[in-house]
Amino acid sequence: MSVAKSILITGATSGIGRALAREYAAPGVHLALTGRDRQRLDEVAAAARARGATVSAAALDVRARHELAKWIRAVDDETPLDLVIAGAGITTGIGLGRPREGADAARAVIATNLLGVLNTIDPAMERMSARGRGRLAFLSTIAAVHGFPYSPAYCASKAAIHSYAEGIRAELLPHGVAVSIIVPGFVATPLNQDIVCPKPFVTKPERAAQIIRRGLEAGRPIIAFPRMLYGAAYILKVMPTAWVDRFLNLIHVDIPETRERVSD
User: Fold this and answer.
1) DSSP strand E in 11-87: where?
2) Is 230 a catalytic residue?
3) Residue of 150, 154, 230, 234 marked catalytic
4) Phi then psi for 37, rounded to 5 degrees?
């Protein structure tokens, strides 16, 4: 795959999205960055410009389908997109005194992590298919491989992303559009910092961004890391279900409930 020169990143104000913006920022590169926090977005955009990139930045919520699509099409009109990374996401789960996920929190996670990704991908996919080139990258997680009792909505949203990306990959191939699924383990991001649980093989955001960029430039359909943790998740899929359920219930996990909500 040729090196991407026009790149759109959602969730660019924090975590992996922020690290990717920094990783790709360079002379000759145009970055289209979005996130909801205007101050942090301006900081990321300024840092990217300091590295020589040109930047279009818009403070948007990926759940705002029509507003997001309008911005993506405007960016693409100005600088046709080579690469779109759908990275925006939130999490929620159970913890002390909260044996079940809140229904409102679970729906907010689904709205952001699944519908927000579709809102990002749809307008870009339409444009890329029309010109016969481009790559769509979906930020999933190793937690999508097997559902975990500590964060069922998060796991479900990411598993849906993974399955959707697999589903459109063959469909888009004749149109010159490639699909990559990014499957990280624990990355030291604000999303994970307040989660209390074992975090094996935790990766720094900068290192994660380097791995992701290399995988995208190599044209890999699956970019999973660390591989040992990825393999362990698949082992859970083939073990007897009763054993796995008992094992997972032995692990102490405390995941803060998101304050995000969706309107009825």
Assistant:
1) 30-35, 54-59, 83-86
2) no
3) 154
4) -90, 105
Tokens of 185: 């383990």
CB-side exposure of 95: number of CA atoms within 13 Å? 13
Each domain of the chain, given as residue ranges in start order, spans 6-249
Q: Is 147 helix (H, G, I), strand (E, B) or coil?
A: coil
Fold entry, domain 6-249: Rossmann fold (3.40.50)
C-alpha 80/C-alpha 7 separation (Å) is: 9
pTM for this prediction: 0.95
Question: Which residue bears the tokens 């040729």?
Answer: 2
Q: How far is Cα 198 from Cα 218, in angstroms, rounded to an integer?
A: 32
Please list the pLDDT of the chain residue by residue as tens digits (264 residues). Answer: 567 899 999 999 999 999 999 999 999 999 999 999 999 999 999 999 999 999 999 999 999 999 999 999 999 999 999 999 999 999 999 987 788 899 999 999 999 999 999 999 999 999 999 999 999 999 999 999 999 999 999 999 999 999 999 999 999 999 999 999 999 999 999 888 889 999 999 999 999 999 999 999 999 999 999 999 999 999 999 999 999 999 999 998 999 999 999 976
Q: Are 220 and 180 in contact (CB under 8 A)?
A: yes
